[in-house]
Amino acid sequence: MTYQVLARTWRPQTFADVIGQEAVVQTLHNALSAETLGHAYVFSGIRGVGKTTAARLLAKAVNCEKGPAPEPCGQCVSCQEIAEGSSLDVVEIDAATHTGVDNVRELQEMLRYHPTRDRYRVIIVDEVHMLSKSAFNALLKILEEPPSYILWIFATTETHKIPATVLSRCQQLEFRPVPLEKIVERLLAIASEEQFELSRDAASMVARAAQGSVRDALSILDQMRGFSADSIDSDAVAEVLGVPRFEVVVDLISALAGGDGMTGLGMLRSELRAGHDVWVLYQEVGRVLRVMLHLAMNADVAEDLPDEQRQQALEVAENLGAAAVTRMAGLWLEHEAMVGSADNRELALDVACMRLARWPAVQRVEALLAGEAPPAVGGQGQGSGSQAPAAPTDGGAHASASPGGRLSSALWAGGQRRLVGAVEGSTVRLSDDELVLEFSTQAKPLAVFARQCFDELEASCREVFGSSIRLTIEVEGGVAPGQEDENPLMREALADPGVILVQKVLGGEVISAVPDGEPN
Ligand SMILES: [Zn+2]
To answer: Less Cβ around it within 10 Å: N or C end of the chain?
Structure first.
């Protein structure tokens, strides 16, 4: 027995077997039941979603000996001939290979004859958008005065290429890409009937690669059977499709999220050695980041994933949080053009990978310059030295934090961010009734700034440490009276929130202040 491809063996023979096109099937059922069928239909949608199948089913339904009925019997001579493609009253034309006007003249010739046996002469034109302009004109004339015994069914993947004059004389039915879960169920059912093993993970990968097309999914399954005979698992599918396994991609993202670029590059190397394409790898990482983003926003999102994979992605997503995943996904997306067009695409992918591993550092500087508290995320770039105060997470001061840390947190949370630098630039001492901010001689300008904001600072101290606390500002070695006012320009510069932030983030020191436009 010769092997027949699955798409042919498992072509639906009733409307009930057509998956993922409920709206179309319902519309046709209604029209058949109420006998309100149009004389011309346009079936549009991506390839492999059941347009031609539905056209043949409709032909059967109108010509069935026991019909017209919503479901053809499948047993009568007419039904069987249509299924075999031998019915004289059902004509199938592929417009992709018959684009000249002559064929339309042939059609017109055919239209002069009534159906030989059945109720309707059904003319199915596949890829109708390929017809020439003159062919469409001839078709338009036919459609303007349609013979009652003709049923036209035009199938197309590109509706916009059909002239509006023709479209307006047809009923349009839109075929949707078939949802992943429905394709998975279909594949598993077929595997069970055909008696070969197919794991759910594997079915899911095949369905994803088919992008909503049942025919493509079945054709991949045909390939898989040629490759691994009677037992198909996700490893085999990954190998045939050249797609990295989901688990590997999640591990890669997890490593990069932790700032571990070395591990990330190593994983990329082994995926590339396994023969996976750079572009496919890039896209898979993007796809998984998107899954994680959705899961981070809403853990209940189904995301068409097997439970195990979903759980794995959810853990990483929840650990990172939505803001971090969004940032990583954004960074990854920025490299699309580079990875897609670079001559050395492996290098481009490595660079994208390293950029992603550096994301916490990039995130932190941006957040600080924007005046936001950085998210508490582990990984590279969180080193000491320029640590920003963490925003209080419990709405109040941390009992365990240092007095300076508690005051900084309160100032940060209270929107007085320009004062945080002053507190951080000092040594903070707390006693029963006094909080002392002591500045080194180098930090004297900061002390001057702190004194200018004395009332604000003291109010914050009292909020944090109690209403009886006094604030004292000291400079190492003391400051002579009047010395504070020595350079008003310097005071102004030091009070500038931008300057304070830059000092804090980049660790700079203000050496001199000059008026705008003057050389320093
Ligand atoms: Zn029948």
So the answer is: N
Q: Ligand 1 centre from 307 Cα, in Å?
A: 43
Q: Average the pLDDT over 245-259 and give the result.
A: 91
- Checking if the pLDDT of 274 tops 50, the result is yes
Is 80 exceeded by the pLDDT of residue 431?
yes
SS3 state of residue 443: coil
Distance 88 CA to ligand 1 centre (A): 15
User: So where are the chain's domains?
Assistant: 6-174, 180-241, 246-362, 403-506
- Reported CATH class of domain 6-174: alpha beta
Provide CATH code, domain 246-362.
1.20.272.10
pLDDT tops 50 at residue 392: no
| pLDDT for residue 454 is more than 60 | yes
What residues pair up with 44 in beta bridges, in sequence order? 156, 174
Gap from CA of 87 to ligand 1 centroid (Å):
12
Q: How far is the CA of 78 from the centre of ligand 1 (A)?
A: 6
Directed axis angle between helix 133-144 and helix 101-111, to 10°? 20
| Ligand 1 centroid to residue 65 C-alpha, Å | 5
Compute the distance from residue 3 Cα to the ligand 1 centre, in Å.
Answer: 28
Residue 391 half-sphere exposure toward CB, CA atoms < 13 A: 17
Cβ atoms within 10 A of the Cβ of 61, count? 24
CA 41 / ligand 1 centre spacing (Å): 21
Task: State in words which class domain 180-241 has.
Answer: mainly alpha
What pLDDT band is residue 163 in, cutting at 50, 70 and 90?
very high
Report DSSP letters for 131-156, one per residue.
S-HHHHHHHHHHHHS--TTEEEEEEE
Average pLDDT over the chain reads: 82
How far is ligand 1, taken at its centre, from the CA of residue 194, in Å? 27
